[in-house]
Amino acid sequence: MARGNQRDKAREKNLKEQAGKKNKNQQSGTEFQRTKEDQAAIMRAKQAAAEAKRAAEGATKK
Questions:
Q1: Is residue 4 within 8 Å of 11, Cβ to Cβ?
Q2: Which 8-state DSSP code applies to residue 25?
Q3: Which long-range contacts (CB under 8 A, 24 or more apart) does 51-60 make?
Q4: Separation in Å, CA 11 to CA 7, 14, 17, 22, 23
Q5: Least CB-packed of 14, 21, 28, 31 within 10 Å?
Q6: Which one-letter DSSP state was computed for residue 21?
Q7: Of 39, 44, 19, residue with least CA distance to 27
Q8: 62 falls in which pLDDT band (50, 70, 90)?
Q9: What's the CA dihedral at 40, 41, 46, 50 to 10 degrees?
Q10: Nearest to residue 36, comparing CAs of 48, 44, 22?
Q11: Structure confidence at residue 1 (pLDDT)
């Protein structure tokens, strides 16, 4: 029976961990929109930096 007890303990531990995890988005609509806009601004900045780097490399190679 030791094995059955071990399974039960593991199952209880897993359920406890799963209950503590965040399952869904907890942000309100405005918070989510603000986060989305911030992430988009970061990506635009990265893209602009990458394009500038490519343009600089292209100018030096010619």
A1: no
A2: -
A3: none
A4: 6, 5, 10, 19, 19
A5: 21
A6: S
A7: 39
A8: low
A9: 100
A10: 44
A11: 52
Alpha-helical runs (H) found in the chain: 2-20, 29-61
Supply 57's token pair. 């490399």
Question: Taking CA 58 as the corner, what is the angle to CA 44 and CA 54, rounded to the nearest 5 degrees?
Answer: 20
Greatest distance between any 2 Cα atoms in the chain = 76
Domain coordinates in residue numbering, the chain = 1-60
pLDDT tens-digit readout, 6-60: 988 999 999 988 887 777 777 888 988 999 999 999 999 999 999 999 998 887 7
The first and second tokens of residue 43, run together, are 């990506």
